[in-house]
Amino acid sequence: MPRWKKILYAVLGVAAVVALGLTIGYLVQKPDTCTDGIERIGGECIGVDGAAYDFGTPEIADVARAISRENERIDDQPHVTVAMMLPLQSDRAALRRQMRSDLQGAYLGQRQANEGEGEPPKIRLVLANPGRNYEHQKRVVDTLLRMADSPKDRLRAVTGFNLSLDTTEAAVKRLTQHKIPVLGSRITGDRIANEEAADGIVQQRFPGLARIIPTNHDAARALANFNGDRGRENLRTVLVYDKRPDRYNESLAKAFSGIEEEGPVGPAPMPFESPAIDEAGSTGNQFTQLANNLCDSRADMIYFAGRTLHLRIFALKLAQVGCEDRHYTIVSGSDAASLRQDMSEKDWARLRGEDGRAKVTVQYAAPAHPDAWRTELARWNKEWDAARDREPTEEELPQYLTEPQAALNTLMNRIETTRGDGTSLGSTPNLEDSRTMLVYDGLISIGKALRQAQSGGTAAVPSREDVGRQWSLLQSRHRVQGTSGLICLTSGGNPYDKPVAVVELDPGLKGPGKLRFVGLGWPTGREQPKNCVIPSSTS
Questions:
Q1: Which of 227, 446, 458, 524 is most buried as measured by Cβ atoms within 10 A of its Cβ?
Q2: How remote is the C-alpha of 246 from its chain's centroid?
């Protein structure tokens, strides 16, 4: 063979090996995807999408399509992008239904915020899945940061955030450090908030963060104020808390520990330890021991600082052990709003005694309830009629009740409009779990901030900083009439004296719901002031 042929074949051979190596390297390094732009990591579909992708969760497929259609409808109008960030996959059916409730609120809030002509910018909504327990939040935040800088996407706010975890805090911290406004509609942990001192000075740990739900500390104060007016001085109380590191559990335990008791001295706090938010582990064994000790302690009211999955197991164990016909009241935080969805008819039967009365009642501070305003207005009117012989004037009506009821009516009309135009949301929104109401309130709050920050022509888009500066202005004349109550944000972006709906799960009630609205609790001990004008911290 001629020498030149040997050289040619050698070169071609080397080229073939290199090409094969590059091809294999590309195939090995190429990320596994669920769909365009969504990466598959450990069996989860991680990323950001606004084009009807359901992240492998069929329960949210219809509402994801509805959001996509609304995005298409406003595509040729001046708009910005808002991201809804929360885990969107789970093996548990109850959690998948909760995701649907959250996204139903997001869609309904997007539609309401996009109402009206000549009021830019409109909201293009995208779904951001950071994975179970926000474990892949860094990848998603990377994408959101690119979208904030993109002239096409113009990301101007991130909302959602339904779990108070270290990973959630890390995501919020990084977003706000890059001046992306964040509105937490459902995070209650005390640490994921800007701290406000007694002198009014704000420690801006998260510049550009706003929240529309009370912290665990405020919810516990509201519960204490509510129960303090209902004869709690005759009850023995005890704290049962989860030792597993969890911002929600930790802040709730701290808040319950700070309640000044008026009744007989109860037993010392009783800890347990769960393996994870959505895993039972050996908690059933631990709760059997705790229930026996509680029986001997003579405690009546139990403050429970733990997640919904473990709360359900604890309540069932408490009823199973039984103790001389004792009735227990378990008091917990906002996460318990999901408890009813996890209960089966067999569970309800286990919580009842042979006489049909409840052995265990669960009371919790729900961030919202659809019966709250109607029930409280009826009470107010009854008291007014008993004291006065005339109709109240417009000025005399309780604004803190009438405005949220009007907002709830608007939401219910929006649900009917959606049903009327043939848009499927997968199911009729269940307002009793508070999720749809809270997320809806978050979207309309963002819509109001965007409109107030808008200046110049319709082509102009408010900057991230301009939107973030609007949070502390959403008070007084610019308060948000939310379905969960008046939203009046302080200089630290925290809701001032936001009420909680005190509700009880009573297995002795007839019907499938077993849920009863009891009353409103206020963190300050009294309702918000007229027009939601926030008083000085020294007044």
A1: 446
A2: 16
260: DSSP letter: P
User: Among 372, 350, 373, 407, which Cα is nearest to 515's?
Assistant: 372
In angstroms, the CA 59 to CA 56 distance is 9
Domain boundaries, the chain: 3-31, 43-215+408-494, 217-370+503-521
CB atoms within 10 A of CB 153: 19
Residue 415 has pLDDT above 70, yes or no: yes
The pTM score is 0.89
The kind and range of the H/E element at 288 are helix 283-297
- The confidence score (pLDDT) of residue 232 equals 53
Number of other residues whose CB lies within 10 A of the CB of residue 91: 8
- Measured at the CA of 234, the angle between CA 230 and CA 235, to 5 degrees, comes to 90
450-469: pLDDT as tens digits? 999 998 776 789 999 999 99
Contacts 24+ apart (CB under 8 A), 64-68: 64/103, 64/127, 65/424, 66/107, 66/418, 66/423, 66/424, 66/425, 67/103, 67/106, 67/107, 67/110, 67/125, 67/127
What's phi and psi for 359, nearest 5 deg?
-90, -30
Distance CA 124, CA 102 (A): 17
d(CA 48, CA 59): 18
CATH of domain 43-215+408-494: 3.40.50.2300
What per-residue confidence (pLDDT) applies to 231? 45
Find the mean pLDDT for residues 409-433: 95
User: In 3D, which of 374, 258, 246, 252 has the Cα closest to residue 304?
Assistant: 252
Phi, psi of 534 (to 5 degrees): -75, 125
C-beta pairs of 487-491 under 8 Å, 24+ apart in sequence: 487/212, 487/441, 487/445, 488/528, 488/532, 488/534, 489/210, 489/212, 490/196, 490/202, 490/534, 491/196, 491/200, 491/202
CA 501 to CA 484: how far, in whole Å? 9
Nearest of 514, 158, 457 to residue 315 by alpha carbon: 514
* 155 backbone dihedrals φ, ψ, rounded to 5°: -65, 125
Domains 43-215+408-494 and 217-370+503-521 share a fold: yes
Q: Which residue has the tokens 């769909």?
A: 35
Domain covering 217-370+503-521: architecture:
3-Layer(aba) Sandwich (3.40)
